[in-house]
Amino acid sequence: MTSGLPRRFLDLLTRPRVAGAAWWSVVSRLPVYLMSLAVVLTVREQGGSYAQAGLVAALYTLGMALGSPLIARHLDRRGRAAVLTATAVAYPLALTVLVWFTHPGGWAQPAAAVLSGTVLPPANACMRSLWARLPLQEEERETAYLWEALLTEVLVIGAPLILAALMLVGSAGLALTTVAVVGGMGTLGLAYTRLPVGTEDTAVAAPKEPRHPLGPLREPALLALTGIMALSAVPIGLLTLAIPAFVDRHGAPGGAGVVYACWGVGSALGALWLGRSQSRVAPQVRFPRLLLAYALGTGLTLLAGSPVGLAVALAVGSAPIALVSASEMTLVSGIADGRSLAEAFTWASLATVLGDALGQQAGGLLMDPLGPRAVFAVATGTALAAAALAFACRGLLTRRAVPVVECAA
């Protein structure tokens, strides 16, 4: 039943002068999905407390939040070769300093953490902006964004497993350094792989007039979209805290990892099963519908009476999550000015990260006084609010022409 979509993925990802960028981008993004965990494990391995490890990981995330929009803006203005090369070298070096030349308790380690996050290579933003510019038919572009959403789910599940495998043969610090170097090599590959003629870079060729301080966020539609994505990510953070608490209260703390896996697997399977016909519906129409389905799916957690029931609820309820992400990317590519696509994609991703972090913080504050079931209810209510906001802003989320190369077909 799902053979058509894997075939579309395969056709897209093996296309000459597209395959190189697509696969190098996978390698370059490995650090994005495991580095926070790797930093915590490394600081603990060095003898630091959980508080020190959490601080270093938080500062790494803070550096990423501060640096990523700036780096993406340079990517739009200077092109991928210069920016990706610089970050591909700086990022592994900064993490090497953090692991091998700093120690918990001093000022150097927090400083190195902020620097490392700041110079994280903008592989996500780069590849997603390239998908918007590559000479593809509209259905193929929709497939590309669905691939991006599915890849995120796969990396969220698989990257920690890669880290665990590396730690079987070495220390956490060595594993972290290895992943950083491999990610840097992938970034260099993405920087210099050849693309179809005329794909890039409309921003580089444009006059270097001063940019507005808000960049693409001065566009009301993009501002509304990032707000919706931030709000829709809050339930993810809430559930991140509520799932292990629920499993623990039912006497099976060791099963939290399996329940989490069901959450991610359900989202990936939902993308494969439901993603075949998504391009038949306009993105500004399907986006609020998918958010409503996501809210209803989140509400299934309220029906769970056991860890097994919660695993089933998460597997079924998470089916629309990757599709929400794919639709969001399609909307960003249609709303943003073609000269600031990378920065626009960065703000959209950052909104999701910040919403997730806010949800985790709120979940931690609500867990003790209210318990996991009440947090499930708050998550459901927040997801419904995000869907309502998306329906209210549907008129804004209309597509406009993006300066991409037309497919010859």
Short note summarizing the structure:
The chain is mostly helical. Helices cover 74% and strands 0% of the residues. The protein has two domains: 17-140 and 153-205, MFS general substrate transporter like domains (Growth Hormone, Chain: A, Up-down Bundle); 214-399, Growth Hormone, Chain: A, CATH 1.20.1250.20.
How would you describe this protein?
The protein is mostly helical. It has two domains: 17-140 and 153-205, MFS general substrate transporter like domains (Growth Hormone, Chain: A); 214-399, MFS general substrate transporter like domains (Growth Hormone, Chain: A). The chain is built from 17 helices and no strands. The longest helix is centred in the middle third of the chain and has 31 residues, at 138-168. It is globular and about 60 Å long. Residues 203-207 and 401-409 have low confidence and may be disordered.
